[in-house]
Design goal:
mainly alpha
Amino acid sequence: PWDLHYFQEIAETKNLSRAAERLGVGQPALSLSLKRLEDTLGVALFLRRRQGLLLTSAGQSLLKESQKLVAAWESVVSEAKKSK
């Protein structure tokens, strides 16, 4: 779930440094998370531009789906905590 959460923040800010700052993590950790996600999916999620990062079509699709996945994960965690 963290890789998806990080991905969402990168997509929102369109900038690794800014996303890392907002998330309170180092830029190397954020870059590694993005690489891991891209390697797992086998597609590039962003185009690297001088003006910042631009979502690819695969990135746009993942962004839509990731919002559902993160919400589902948060629900699972919440239910698990209730059942303690």
